[in-house]
Design a protein that fits this description.
Elements (H helix, E strand, L loop, with lengths): L2 H12 L5 E3 L13 H5 L4 E3 L3 H4 L3 H16 L9 E4 L3 H9 L7 E4 L5
Parallel strand pairs: 1-2, 3-4
């Protein structure tokens, strides 16, 4: 079973009756076609949004970005930094990302000696 299929089925299994599954991104691979019958078992719904459709114009992009930054500033959203690397270790940070040794955000910070 492909990794995507494993996570997809697990996500469906977690949903309650009339649940709604949102698939965003494809870090575990390109999604396979979904059999509609898999959704009918619990009257589930599924959506697969693409960010570009919500930011199709510069005005829409600026509006969404403004709302995001406002929510961060007001504490509605919290930015969690999972991994910090000094800038001098940027190569190590990239290696960790490429080898899937990280989850969440990875931030490069200025070296203390600079």
């Amino acid at each position: 079973m492909l990794r995507w299929n494993f996570y997809f089925q697990g996500s469906l299994d977690c949903l309650k009756l009339r649940g709604h599954l949102v698939l965003f991104g494809q870090s575990s691979g390109t999604p396979d076609p979904v059999p509609v019958s898999a959704l009918s078992v619990k009257s589930l719904s599924l959506t697969r949004p693409t960010l570009m459709h919500y930011t199709v114009t510069r005005d829409k992009l600026l509006e969404a970005a403004g709302e995001l930054f406002e929510n961060v500033a007001n504490g509605v959203l919290r930015v969690r930094v999972n991994h910090k690397y000094p800038l001098s270790q940027a190569a190590e940070a990239h290696t960790a990302l490429e080898s899937r040794q990280t989850t969440g955000s990875v931030v490069l910070i200025q070296d203390a000696s600079l």
